[in-house]
Amino acid sequence: MSGDRGGEDALVRAIRELSARAGDAGGVRVGIGDDCAVLEPHAGATVLATTDLLLEDVHFRRRWAEPADIGWKALAVNLSDIAAMGGRPRWALVALACPEETTAEEVVAFYEGALALARPHDVAVVGGDTSASPAGWLVNVTLLGEATGAPRLRSSARPGDRLAVTGPLGRAAAGLAVLERGTAPPGVSAAHLADVTAAHLRPRPRVEEGAWLGGAAGVTAMMDVSDGIGIDLPRLAAESGVAARIDVDRLPVDEATRAVAAALGADATAWATGGGEDYELLLSCESAAFERLRRGLADRFGVRLTAIGEVTAGTGVSWRLHGREITVARGFEHFAARPTPSGARP
Amino acid sequence: MSGDRGGEDALVRAIRELSARAGDAGGVRVGIGDDCAVLEPHAGATVLATTDLLLEDVHFRRRWAEPADIGWKALAVNLSDIAAMGGRPRWALVALACPEETTAEEVVAFYEGALALARPHDVAVVGGDTSASPAGWLVNVTLLGEATGAPRLRSSARPGDRLAVTGPLGRAAAGLAVLERGTAPPGVSAAHLADVTAAHLRPRPRVEEGAWLGGAAGVTAMMDVSDGIGIDLPRLAAESGVAARIDVDRLPVDEATRAVAAALGADATAWATGGGEDYELLLSCESAAFERLRRGLADRFGVRLTAIGEVTAGTGVSWRLHGREITVARGFEHFAARPTPSGARP
Fold it and tell me: What is the DSSP letter of A152?
């Protein structure tokens, strides 16, 4: 980073002021500035903790992700993990490393992006670390939350349960395809383009929906869809020791995603199963509870809950299209293949 | 990372088993494997949280740091932050990114290095994230701890207090100088070389000492010495709104560090003030309490507490050598100057 900014302490002071201005979200005895943050959980609550590392050219590209987008997304992926447990997010620790030529304004914009998402969910940034990076931007966010009841695990789905997912799938992948192309695909409306690129750059994790589902009767297991349902659903099934059957033609794909897929000659279903980064919630529930949960999410949050299949006894996941079993595109596994610096999949 | 290892899930399973074998440190309802860890703090305790990002060629070099050393050190720097608050470390989240060519054995060695330090302090690894890195190893550890009484802040030193530091200073810098040189300096004993290189590669944070000082009467402020006392002490003074006077000839420098400095024609005092990475504890205490604290640390832990100066009214830090005011080498500020990939200071 530029050496003329008065060093690390000045940066820490600026971030501290920014975080303090964001308002006290409660439960913070000491925030940024000491060796540790000192936090006061609610009596009787369990503490939820999750951490995610985001790297330039693996998880995002500076070509289209502004510093504020990076800050937003780094917080979003962690908020989604807390939501998936049915908990409430409370405190974030944000570590950032960026190249020497990064300006103080870019660093502040990064933190403002994170705070823009933190603030409406009453999340306080209580700690962090800043460093020079010899190789691009990299961010680690650790998010702490609380659960008052039993957290929703991914290991408690049972045969006979319904499988369901919030919102649409494949939208972030459609957005990524547009961003990688660099120019707008012909015949796609500006509103649709804005929808899909925002889904990729500034995902809106299901924070309130997750907290509500965490307290709702009949939800048996829950996780977020971060790597694509083609990877995440087999994880839920394996952790629960059950099998699952998915009707691929019931996977929710919205109009914007279909329009982009049509314009680019891409497969919207493959985006829905293997695109990843949608940060929707995947849940299993008692069959009899589905309709109540669906209506609850629609009425309270205007969010659609779609039944996509069933939990069965056994192991493995079978995917059916028009009644025939098919193989689906899996999501993105960070270790399965190396992302190429100029490649198709960040 | 090598693509033939069965992907990210297999790695997560291996790390989960490794962490589980490390024993249940308590308070973990759900560890690695779900969207979040689910933790149960003690009733009435505050939760301490700290995070640190360590990057190859900024904070360590693969030329001499083995994967197990990196894991150890990433945990050590965070343990030191919890110790500096007078708290007890409990739960760690460890995120790792490493290059494609990294083997599964190296990743496991990294986690074993972290666990080798976690285990004796009853710290459980409860979460993490793994990713491919396009540019070297990078590690983020977030450590959560607990404090039952009031945590020791860096902002509560008062004029008239004594300033003191645990253990010796400058040893990690001496170790780094030896490692950078590549060959043993002439005339330095093997034991001294082992002392200083271990101080750099495998620092032993003052975990038990910090917890004891956290409960001892008369300690007014505390922080750890991570960037060098030349940077860290001015931080403590500024946060407390006080000035400080340090007698440089009283700074504790051990025989091994002096021997290496003599052999290399280096300045041991500059290492002690500006070398950083010693992870000793710097504290202010009531004058009358010093002797009791000194004896307590010596008797319980065999650790020396050295009085190095006084807190005074005003602002700023003055450094005196043989009664004359001098300017001291400052520690390493990550943003003050860019580390050069082949440079003198990682």
Answer: -
